[in-house]
């Protein structure tokens, strides 16, 4: 179902997630990430994108959520019961939505905190210089309090922490959140560089579908807790529904389209698995 | 040197020494609060069990004092770690008030267990501090400072210096602050958050127990000595719940203030002074003198 290049690093199979024993958020969601690829996970608000990432990084337990069915495999191992910090140390890093830097620590201290991800590795040296090479602006503000950084700089710091951890797979939740278009482009350029230069696989959740598809190899689109469309970026970009609902392009003519003609719901739906 | 001034100086010195013990216990509270956001109302009882462990080991089991102190601290740390692992870790995600209530219940249980083991009668601890009093030269006169008070102050100062050094240069200090700031984010960078919680409870219990042994050596122990926890809550609120420096300054301040109140108003009013200060601080600086204000970016 996806382009075959290398092995599968992450495989989510038919998972269901329930919050507070009552609210079902994921309903049999499946997706996979091939090693070395950027995979985009798109969808509207409340579709369950963030929940999907938290299910993988095993953060749901902190929010009274639980996976009730299905399996999640990282490099072939079932990770449903692996502690979150153990996953990070094993190479699966989650850059959470809203950046989540430690606001009252300095930039340097934020990066030092991320060195805990290297615990138990063979080569445990943290490469701060690499972070500052990617993000020169952070170098200038090393001793500054992270809470006073601008939104873009905070996102850079969040990505910098991921770089320190030297992960194999990064789960990235809405890196464009609250940033100006210029900064969004800069952040996505760096995301692509990280992927190309370091061979890190990335599962990218985004509201900004056009930007996400511009860097990704493969894309999934989810609606109400399951995948409805998936395919290579080329295929998705050519899909009439995707163009209409996610990329804001009108059908056929290519120009803007009157809202009177916008369909209220999907023309077609497809369940994976 | 007028007698009034001499009184002032002697009461100040004694007050600051009591304050140092408040500060040490306050640190035990702040470490737990910083990492876990749990308001540990049983902090006075943690002092008490530390003192009773020392009493049991030194006076009843006749161990040498140094061994009894070390074993008592280890036992108190074990209790702290055990409570975290089997009670407080299960309460992660519950509302702060529920967890606070659990610590109040825990305080009662600890008092009950101590009374079962050692009865409610007051006891005195074996002396382990030198008993030559300090005389602070003051012009023509000398201010008297009881030996136990003076030595307590010196010991507390040494422990504090060790704390500050360790948290400044050790990566674990950053892990503690990161966990305090955002648990999920701490997990997401690979910090063993439950491990940090355990560490904080063990360290908090040991610190409180050390303070308990010192307090007990000054004024004896009883199953009601945990009531000092009420003044301690004031200390940490005045200093700022999550500030180690705040616990230090708040402790010294409240200790001195209570001593002044008992000198000039009368011993039975010293708690009134304490709570007047609490009220003032809450009105003027609701985060305490050194507490973290949440950083808000506009």
Structure notes:
The complex is a heterodimer of chains A (273) and B (298). Chain A has a single domain (8-261), classed as Rossmann fold (3-Layer(aba) Sandwich). Chain A is built from ten helices and ten strands. Chain A has helices at residues 49-56, 84-89, 107-114, 128-134, 136-140, 151-164, 181-198, 209-215, 233-238, 240-245; strands spanning 8-19, 23-34, 38-43, 65-74, 77-78, 92-95, 169-173, 201-206, 218-223, 226-232. Chain A has a six-stranded mixed β-sheet with strand order 6-7-8-3-9-10, with helices on both faces. Chain A has a four-stranded antiparallel β-sheet with strand order 2-1-4-5, covered by helices on one side. The model of chain A has no long low-confidence stretch (mean pLDDT 87). Chain B is mainly α and 298 residues long. Chain B has a domain at 23-227. Helices cover 71% and strands 3% of the residues of chain B. Chain B has helices at 3-36, 43-60, 65-88, 96-118, 147-169, 171-181, 183-188, 193-219, 229-239, 244-264, 270-284; strands at residues 134-138, 141-145. In chain B, strands 1-2 form a two-stranded antiparallel sheet. In chain B, α9 packs across α10 (244-264) and α9 (229-239) packs parallel to α11 (270-284). The longest helix of chain B has 34 residues, at 3-36. The mean pLDDT of chain B is 90. The A-B interface holds A 57, 59, 62-64, 83-85, 88-89, 93-96, 100-105, 109-110, 112-119, 145, 147-148, 151, 161, 165 and B 92-93, 171, 174-175, 177-178, 181-194, 292, 294-295, 297.
